[in-house]
Amino acid sequence: MKQLCAATLAICLFFSCGGKQEQPTLSGLKKSDFITEVEGKPVALYVLKNKNGLEAAITNYGGRWVSMMTPDRNGKLTDVVLGYDHIADYLASPGNFGALIGRYGNRIANARFALDGTEYPLSANNNGHSLHGGPTGYHTRVWDALVVDNQTLILTYLSPDGEEGFPGNLHIQVTYTLTDEDAMDIRYEATTDKPTVVNLTHHSYFNLSGLAASQITDHLIRIYADAYTPVDATLIPTGVIAPVEGTPLDLRKLVPIGAGIDEDFEQLRKGGGYDHNWVLNTEGDIHIVAAEAISEHSGIVLDVYTVEPGIQFYTGNAMSGKDLGKHGVTYPHRGAFCLETQHYPDSPNQPAFPSTVLLPGETYRSRCIYKFSVVQ
Fold this sequence. Notes:
Layout: H1 2-14, E1 36-38, E2 41-43, E3 45-49, E4 55-59, E5 64-71, E6 77-79, H2 87-92, E7 99-101, E8 107-108, E9 112-115, E10 118-121, E11 130-131, E12 144-149, E13 152-159, E14 170-178, E15 183-192, E16 196-197, E17 201-203, E18 220-223, E19 225-229, E20 242-243, E21 255-256, H3 257-260, H4 266-271, E22 275-280, E23 291-294, E24 300-306, E25 310-314, E26 323-324, E27 330-331, E28 338-342, E29 357-358, E30 364-374
Antiparallel strand pairs: 1-2, 3-4, 4-5, 5-6, 7-17, 8-11, 9-10, 12-13, 13-14, 14-15, 15-30, 16-29, 18-21, 18-23, 19-20, 19-22, 22-25, 23-24, 24-30, 25-28, 26-27
């Protein structure tokens, strides 16, 4: 009830400015463009700011991170997150721009898994597999929103037993905090009343250059991982943990994304570029950098920290070059990259992979930090 009251109050405030012109966010968004109802629940845009002047905008539709303003090497605030400037565009798009992903991030083979002797068929939405929780996963749900302070937003959602085929009522809380260390700190918690599987993640599309219509192939990337999980032709893991050594997936040193993305390597052909899960060396230590990306054009650096064992690096291979984004900019093919912290794809069907099972009485916890800075 508190969350609904907060959202209702926010909507009232948006319209109570007595004819005064609405002030847009630093990224040029209008809060009024995000006010609507979806399935009877209020949707709004929430703005977080830290003491250094950084600004993040988030909508409770799909828990989507809509914009992120962070300074470039010259101190100019730059939006580094792709998305739309109107809620109608998010509602019309099948994509995952900026979204919270669940109940299971990434793929589950053949849209089914077995748990305690019971087989659970899921909604198939990707080559016969379940991808990112199915066609109406958490990226399409309206989350209850509670503004804690200028830097913290809490989103909650009850995923009912049987939603997209997953067992158990799952109570989820996701906390977004824009810290004074210039980082977006995302914390996930969930509990269930039946044994289930959970793998929550975040799906922002980043372009650090400040040129939203540009490709990200000139960005530098580093992933601290000695191994990855090879996939078949439909991007389902084979069950093997393979070394990156001697392959274009060896990203342990900073290299341009475009340097190896089109190499004649079977795994890259299957993904149309990078679209794989790396097995991190960080052993779940939130204080150790898991991945790093840099735009030499803007000087903006993104460091990713996580407690998860893996990270999916995706280079916008399916971006068509026809998507009209914020401020009328057309996003090109490979116009962004994603770094999705996660357990491995298809873990429910891969006994050798770290388990994603959550039992009643347990609390699922995950954490991911996206930290922004500039090249020194």
